[in-house]
Structure formats: C-alpha cells, structure tokens
Amino acid sequence: MRPDLRQIRFFIALAEELHFNRAAERLNVTQPALSRTLKELEAGIGVPLLQRTTRSVELTEAGSVFLAECRLALGHLERAVSLARRTAEGLSGELRIAYMDFAINGRLPELLRAFRSRHPGIRVELSFMPTTAQQAALLEHRIDLGFMIGLLDNGRFEHYAFEQQPYVALLPATHPLLDAPSTSLDALAREPFILGSGENWTAYRNRLFAICHRHGFYPDIVQEASSSEGIFGLVAGGIGVTVYAGCARNVLRRGVVVRALDDVHEHIPVCACWDAGGVSPSLQRFVQFMKSVWGG
C-alpha cells in the first residue's frame, strides 16, 4: 500500500512535535485518530517509523530517512500546485517564439528583455525561422507565435503590426555611388546584386522584386547567401550591392555603408502572428504586454 497525502502530513506533524497531543492539536484531529493513521502508515510501509513509550515518541532510523524524503516530496507537491496556479494565471509557463533576421536585428531583443523583466516566470524558447517556415510551424502548432514579414493569410490567426522598417541600400565602403549626396533604387538598377537565397528569403524577395519591377528593372543577382551575415560579408567584399531592411543600422559591419533610398517609400512590415483559437495564458500575457505595455 502506498501512503496517501493525509498519512504523510500526519507523520510529519508528529515527527516535528514528537508528542501525540501537540501533533493532534496542530492537525485539529483527536489523538486516537492520529495514532490510528500512523499505525496504518507503518503497516502499509512494512517497517516501524516510530518508537513509542508511555512518556515519549522518537523516530526510528527508518523513520528519520522517511521524514527527510516526505519533506522533499511535500515540497515538490506544493511547488507543483503553485506552478499550476501561476501557469493558469499566465504568470509561469513556456512560450515558443520564432523570429527572422529583420525582427532579431530590429526591436525584438528590446521587447524580449522588457517582457522577461516583467514576467520572469515565463520561459521563452526562441527559434530562428524564415517567414515561410514560421507559417508552416504555426499551422502545425510547433510554435506559439512568430515574428515574420507580412501576414499569414488564414482566418484562424491574429496579427499585430510589430514594426515597419524602411528599405535601405547596403554598399561596399569604396563604392562610387557613395560620392553622391543621396542614393536611389533607380541608381542601383545596373549594379550587381547580393540577395538572400530563395529558400530562406522568399517573402522578402517577392516584396523587393515587386518594387524593382515598378522601377522598371529586375535585379542582376550575382551571388546569394543564406544569412544576413553572409549578405553583409559579400557586400563588404565588393561583390555587389543589396537592398535590406533599415535594421541594418543596428548591425555594425566593417566595409558596409547603409544609405537611405530616397525614391522608395514602402516599408517592410514585421508582424507578430499567432493562432487565435489556442491562446495559452502565457501567450495572452505576452500579446497583452506587446500591445498595451511595451508597444504603448
């Protein structure tokens, strides 16, 4: 027979008081009920836990070992109850959040620091994913929220316009266009382009190609990279130029100069997206913080 919680509480009280009357008063039960419960506990375990005399009660060696483990078990149980309540209230729990380059190089780190300071009991698990991979992960419930380019066109999802970033030109530090007082997309039309690979940068490329088309050209892509670091490195090496998000100003890279594009007025929408039908208390806390506290 396994001891139940009532038996364990009775045993701990007697072990701490070492007196049946005081233990019974502490538990608000009669002394016979306490004595009967402890005898049932010993019978169930199969070893004596208490050494009784007419004047005193002491723990046996087995009783001392059992007491130490009971205190640990009761502590874990009380912690489990507390965590369950905190999780239900959104004060504790876990969040799986995905991000892409423009988010992590933009204002997302600032948001995460502020949220962690306000809600230290919620653990945030971060994963890097391109926009298209985030959309699939949301649909398959592998993440709770994603920071991506644009919206996920599905009625079950909610969105929040987290950040609007301008398009900027990244030029090698020795590029002749830097001698001009300003830079335009039209001026880049005949330049060799570095772009993120189609596999990881599909959402961004589609938006950039549409803008270039409106300006009457298609970028001459001479090299692709899978990451922002790769793009910056190729630009610094003089392989070509690129058009990137304004968060490039937050990423210091020797040999690369960031210039505003005076003829591009569109912005890159970095949106937070989550499933409206399965919002956990932790996710509710995060969304509310993002919208009302931090965002406000």
UniProtKB/TrEMBL annotation:
GO terms for molecular function: DNA binding; DNA-binding transcription factor activity. PROSITE patterns: HTH_LYSR (PS50931). InterPro entries: LysR_HTH_N, LysR_subst-bd, WH-like_DNA-bd_sf, WH_DNA-bd_sf. Residues 3-60 form the HTH lysR-type domain. It comes from the Bacteria. Pfam families: HTH_1, LysR_substrate. Keywords: DNA-binding, Transcription, Transcription regulation. GO terms for cellular component: protein-DNA complex. Belongs to the LysR transcriptional regulatory family. PANTHER family: LYSR FAMILY TRANSCRIPTIONAL REGULATOR, TRANSCRIPTIONAL DUAL REGULATOR HCAR-RELATED. This is LysR family transcriptional regulator.
